[in-house]
Amino acid sequence: MDAEVRARVALVSDLRAGLDAGQLFLVYQPQVDIATGRIVGLEALARWRHPRRGLVGPDEFIPVAEKSGLIVPLGRWVIRTACRQAKLWFDAGIAPAFVAVNVSGSQFRTPLELETTFAAVVAETGLPPARLELELTESALMDAWVEKRDVLLHLRESGVKIAIDDFGTGFSSLEYLSRFPVDRIKIPRCFMQDLGGGPGHAAVVKATIGLGRELGLGVVAKGVETREQLELLKTWGCREVQGYYFARPQPAEELTELLRRGELHPMRPPAPVAADGTVHPR
Length: 282
Fold this sequence. Notes:
Blueprint: H1 2-21, E1 24-33, E2 39-50, E3 54-56, H2 58-68, H3 71-91, E4 99-102, H4 111-125, E5 132-137, H5 138-147, H6 149-158, E6 161-165, H7 174-179, E7 184-187, H8 189-193, H9 199-215, E8 218-221, H10 227-236, E9 240-241, H11 252-261
Parallel strand pairs: 2-4, 4-5, 5-6, 6-7, 7-8, 8-9
Antiparallel strand pairs: 1-2, 1-9, 2-3
Helix pairs in contact: 1-2, 3-4, 5-6
């Protein structure tokens, strides 16, 4: 236990220093229209290149950031960095409809700071607010709606899109969903992994797609890695997907040429993916 505590404290210290030293960077994973292959959006994902440990996966450093409170400055950096890059693509005429960033529930505990950060970033970058999508988990969205409703409404009124990330993994309420200022719901990767293994996950995915359609919400399926998954989603009426079957998360400089083409078609086969999200070449 002592060793675990020491390691966690060291990681917090390293992460704080890494934020100041510019060790973190963003990669972007395309979201694709199934019918046309058109890139409809990008999700910005944080990565950390540690000077001694190499690439530290988000599954390791994001929970540490949440517990230590570093998720607030980290989230502020993600929004600013993603918006700056999106504005460069926008000015070049190759930007997708939006860039999505994940927002922690912790960031809504200081709602004035979140609104101020967003207003400052929009003013600084000149990015139209409609080009940004904020992704929140169900529990974070519910907490924000109950306690910080004005913040969500102000952001939505400014033009920002709101998405529910990993829909179905939290304590969702259909009554809340019908009243939330939400544009899209995202089906989590864990549901996609076992589509062929039994009726459970398949039923949830089909129901989510149907629910989104009835409520007039966009639906994007995450973690699409096989042709079989894609064909099932097409059969059930899902229109947008995200996953290694189409593209791995890429640095902005690698993605720029892809955005110029504007379309993305499946990779066969997808590259193997490590637990930290890195891709191993074959």
